[in-house]
Amino acid sequence: MKNHTKNTPRMKPSKPYPDFPLFAHATGRWAKKVRGQLKYFGPWEDWQRALNKWLERRDDLMAGRLPQEDTGKVTVRDLVNAFLTSKLAATKTGDISRRTFQDYYQTGARVIAAFGKTRAADNLGPADFQMLANRMQGWAPVTRANEIQRTRTLFKYGYEATLIDKPIIFGPDFRKPSAKVIRAAKADKPTRLFNRQEIRTLLNRAPLLLRAMILLGINAGLGNTDVSELNREHLDLRRGILEYPRPKTAIERRATLWPETVKALKAVLARGQEIITVGASKGRPRHRPKDPKDEAAVFLTHQQRRFVRHNETIRDSVAMAFGKLLRAVGLKREGIGFYSLRHTFESVAGETRDQAAVDRIMGHHDPHVRGHCLHWAKNAEEDTRLRRVTNHVHQWLFGK
């Protein structure tokens, strides 16, 4: 019987499972051919470690980059995670909104996908950001501008937080589109406004909750998140007043409400109170809000949650319900959504030539000019001006 020696060829092992991405090479190592070259990831005896090594280096290898070895430097993944941790804390203090955090989250994911999670963050240069810019081809100018700004903010944070030792050089091509390009793109878009007959059609066909939301949109310029975050304490229905800081910016705003809006809100609140306290047909109590913090919410879904929720993804039930209504009445078209009610209010209200009052209602503030909202006294004179604006929009919508 012949004894095996170290020179006797070993039998190649089978793959640990059918979809295992590596193959057993004759040199006794697990390997894979990437971009025409063989890459090795460890001995046959330790397939799990070889797999982990492949998964860690895959993004760099597939992109044609030299994998970043463990040098103690902050990787792209480390930088993104630190940045998002900082921004998540900012949502809890109210410095940024959950929607803004979600945008940063998506940008971070795209940066990792482009550069690889193990790439040293301070090893990026103009060629890398040119490649990232190329991935944005076909994006709308405003979308591209926002993405580039968020990416720059990410790497600026890394330098200011001393995670990287030097400012990142982005190169001449990784910059936002010019104001002229953005204006031209906006001019080419279809109008995002409703006409009066379209809004009246929507009001006639909308169920109770959505009808109240539509009225708030065209009466006071509320958007999707605005109606979702609206609480009872923001409303004085006896006097027909809404006083409600914008969730997006925390800028104070005040609006006078139409009789139709007050009536619809009273019906919503009455129904909500009935759902919470009266009980079903057999006398059993209905479910309270899923989150106790939502007890004061004006609008809740059938699942007793806010209409707009921000987790890793955004679930906007206002947009979904309104889109369904648009399709039902044959008004669905590009660029039109619930937020178009806010744009329409601003356009019609602007005809009053009282921009300060319009800004007060919408919660606008120009950082380059002393804000109008700083001078409002919350008195009868203010409400007269606000009512003059909302009455103008009411006459446009319901008048002959």
Describe the structure.
The model is unreliable at 275-286 and 367-374 (pLDDT under 50). The longest helix is centred in the middle third of the chain and has 20 residues, at 141-160. This protein has helices at residues 47-62, 76-92, 98-115, 126-134, 141-160, 179-188, 196-205, 208-220, 224-229, 259-277, 317-328, 340-349, 355-362, 380-398; strands spanning 23-24, 29-34, 37-43, 235-236, 241-243, 254-256, 308-310, 314-316. The protein is 47% helix and 7% strand. The chain folds into three domains: 23-62, no CATH class; 76-188; 196-398, hpI Integrase, Chain A, CATH 1.10.443.10. It is mainly α and 400 residues long. A three-stranded antiparallel sheet has the order 1-2-3. Strands 4-5-6 form a three-stranded antiparallel sheet.
What key attributes describe this structure?
single chain; 400 residues; mainly alpha; hpI Integrase, Chain A; 3 domains; three-stranded antiparallel beta sheet; 14 helices
| Low-pLDDT stretches | 275-286, 367-374
Number of strands: 8
**Average pLDDT value?**
84
Tally of separate domains: 3
So how many helices? 14
Read across the widest sheet, the strand sequence of neighbours is 1-2-3
CATH-level-4 superfamily name of the largest domain: Intergrase catalytic core
How far apart the termini lie comes to 108 Å
In brief:
The chain is mainly alpha-helical.
What is the topology?
Layout: E1 23-24, E2 29-34, E3 37-43, H1 47-62, H2 76-92, H3 98-115, H4 126-134, H5 141-160, H6 179-188, H7 196-205, H8 208-220, H9 224-229, E4 235-236, E5 241-243, E6 254-256, H10 259-277, E7 308-310, E8 314-316, H11 317-328, H12 340-349, H13 355-362, H14 380-398
Antiparallel strand pairs: 1-2, 2-3, 4-5, 5-6, 7-8
